Amino acid sequence: MPGNPSPSAPRPPATLRAFFSRGGALARALGNYEYRSGQWEMAEAVERALAERRHLLVEAGTGTGKTLAYLAPVLASGRRVLISTGTKNLQDQLMHKDIPLLARAVGRELKAVCLKGRNNYACRAKIADLERQPALLGLADLDRYRHIRAWAEETATGDRAELEDLPEVSPLWERLNARRDACTGSKCRCFDDCFLTAMRQRAMEADLVVANHHLFFADLAIKSRDLPGVLPPYEAVVLDEAHELEDIAGQYFGVGLSNLQLQDLAADGAALAKFIAAGNGEVANTAGQGWLPALQHAAEAGGHLFAALAADGEGRAPLRDRAAFVAAHRAVFERLRGGLAAAEAGMEALRPAPEELEPLLRRVRDTAAKVEYLFTGEAEGVVFWHERRGRGVYLQATPIAVAALLEERLFAATDTVILTSATLAIEGRFDYVRQRLGVPHGGERVVVSPFDYEQQALLYLPEDLPDPRTPEFAAAAAEEIAAILQCSQGRAFVLSTSYEQMRELHRRLAPRLPFATLLQGEAPRHILLERFRQTPGAVLFATSSFWQGVDVQGEQLSCVIVDKLPFAAPNDPVLEARIRAMQAEGRNAFMELQLPQAVLALKQGFGRLIRSRSDRGVLALLDGRVLRQRYGSVFLQSLPPYRRTRQLSEVKAFFAAAPGPEARAEKEARA
Ligand code: SF4
Fold first, then answer.
1. Of 107, 214, 268, 424, which shows the fewest CB atoms inside 10 Å?
2. How far is the CA of 196 from the centre of ligand 1 (A)?
3. What are the residues facing 56 on neighbouring strands?
């Protein structure tokens, strides 16, 4: 993906070695700097990959300081490099913490731009349109709308993250954001002042551009359809949190549609018809020309069709025989198809064609194409599946393998792709990630964490627990957890591999534990984490969403207990299709896919415990298969070198050597 070198390429910090050295620029900028050889080692590998224009895989153990280890060489390279990370929160962390620190160290201001998905930005045209139509707002929204309108006059970015009191889910924001499906692009009267246009312009001139993986793959997928991308041109990419790439890429290279999208389409059509009618008498009859009722019929038929898809209730399931499904629901399917076709024809026939209709027409065409593909299109290399979540039913087509797609569209198109994460390697090797993501060649490096895991952490593998797949397991696990928590004085995460198991353990333990307990789902994730940090001795029961991206430093988190080896459910439609495809090729799906996936997940989960050099704690794994089964050694050899025990007495002794705050206070009082 060729691009011009950054026009404001800064002078590199004297040399990278000097920059990271004791007493170097970074040490001077950071009061409490600790030299970490791994950080320098990674920076040097990134520098070389950028200079030699080749791909690189780096596993950087927790505490390496990997963000600065790629930011500094990226800045020094003078190349136009896009940085992409896992979530918006991580983007904000780069923008507010790491990049300002780098700027202090290099002694000059850095131009950095954070790019997020379009729906994070305000749309000036929509804000102005709503101002003309205050009657479309309820009283409760009117104040908030005024607040957003005033903010839009002042903000430089238009990024909703600046609106601190805006709820995460806000129907008003949905009406005001810059999402593609309601944007008229260069025909828009606000185009010159558009936040998106300005942001892309700033990105072209920036020293550092920070995106997230969702945006990155959305851009890649759009470009592969020969449409203009959303990101500015780049010559090289750093993909942080690279262990998440396969799932996200699958999502964006796939196709999806839901009943809610069909409903939104009809609702937006109705709102638009009203808006046009109110603002322009000439086209006031557009709603009467049939396109809107056709759209509404399509949405209604879609509602029935999607309800039939998920007749078995919540959760995911494969749609194995699409032809049979369509045959069984032929009438309603034809109503959906016919409604969309009639709406499209009606909108195309409008004269004069109101400009505001164009984005809606694009959406109708796009939806019709999705309906065709999802129900009747080519199925080679794709798994079709559906999921019911609350009121929503989602039909998805996901590529079974993304490796070939990524090889062609990413690794062959961009000469330097750097993938990094704290968890990429299995037993020190990158075969798994290379094979799953299609990384063709290039360098690789495992940078070990600077933490002294042998001293800081104890891995407890209890004896004599029943097999976790048996019904006796839950009761025995609950007893074991209670005993461990007694030693740690709470201060623990209890991480389960399923919601069911999480609830079961919580139900058994919460009433009898002398510690405050928190349960995933009781409150949003960040609030639960804050409560955990603030509540002495708290125990949090959670599932996979707390296995990664959670950082609780200090003794408040002194113990992480994992109930089972985190093998993904093999009946998940995408995993099931991947397993079948590998078996059809005569490959061993367990060893090549399920096991490495679970190993990386366990590394992530255990990685929550030791977040700094002063952290200490116990990891407990209640799944005896790690010692009984031959594959167990792959887990153990992929984990950091924790000290290991099978005796609870050693867990007790470990905590006695570094007592918790309460025990310390008691000891001091006795003294
Ligand atoms: S160009 Fe699109 S996003 Fe920008 S103000 Fe206009 S309609 Fe909104």
1. 107
2. 8
3. 418, 443
**Spatial CA neighbour of 181 closest among 278, 265, 122, 267:** 265
What separation in Å is there between the alpha carbon of 194 and the centre of ligand 1?
Answer: 6
Q: How, if at all, do strands 392-399 and 255-258 pair?
A: antiparallel
Question: For residue 602, is it within any domain?
Answer: yes
Counted domains in the chain: 3
Residues 469 and 365 in one domain: no
Residue 667 has pLDDT above 80, yes or no: no
483, 630: one domain: yes
Gap between the Cα atoms of 329 and 339, Å rounded: 16
- Which residue in this structure is represented by tokens 């929550």? 608
Under 8 Å between Cβ of 375 and 195? no
Q: Best substitution site from 131, 189, 190, 195 to test ligand 1's pocket, by max atoms within 8 Å of Cβ?
A: 190
Query: How many angstroms does the Cα of residue 67 sit away from the middle of ligand 1?
Result: 33
Do 277 and 359 fall into the same domain? yes
> Are 571 and 665 in the same domain?
yes
| Contact (CB, 8 A) for 561 and 493 | yes
pLDDT per residue as tens digits for the range 300-351: 999 999 999 987 777 899 999 999 999 999 999 999 999 999 999 999 888 7
pLDDT at residue 1 greater than cutoff 50: no
Mutate to test the pocket of ligand 1, among 126, 153, 177, 357 (most ligand atoms within 8 A of CB): 126
The dihedral through the CA atoms of 156, 159, 164, 166 has a sign that is positive
Residue 129 lies in a domain: no
Domain co-membership, 375 together with 459:
no
Residue 545: burial class (beta carbons within 10 Å; 0-12, 13-18, 19+): exposed
Residue 667 Cα to ligand 1 middle (Å): 65
Q: Determine, yes or no, domain membership for 618.
A: yes
Residue ending a domain, among 336, 364, 399, is: 399
- Residue 513, domain member (yes or no): yes
Residue 134 has pLDDT above 80, yes or no: no
pLDDT in tens, 203-213: 988 999 999 99
Tell me the CA–centroid distance for residue 421 and ligand 1, in Å. 36
Residue nearest to atom 7 of ligand 1 (CA): 183
- Which atom of ligand 1 is nearest the CA belonging to 197? 4
pTM of the model: 0.84
CATH number of the domain at 91, please: 3.40.50.300
**The length of the chain, given as a count of residues:** 671
Residue 183 has pLDDT above 90, yes or no: no
Farthest CA pair distance, the chain: 90
Query: In CATH, what number is assigned to the domain containing residue 286?
Result: 1.10.275.40
Query: Do residues 264 and 383 both lie within one domain?
Result: yes
Residues 52, 105 within the same domain: yes
Q: What is the pLDDT of residues 355-388, one digit of tens each?
A: 778 889 999 999 999 999 999 998 889 999 999 9
Mean pLDDT of 48-60: 96
- Domain carrying residue 309: 253-399
End-to-end CA distance of the chain: 68
If asked whether residues 651 and 564 sit together in one domain, one would say yes
Which residue in this structure is represented by tokens 């020293």?
207
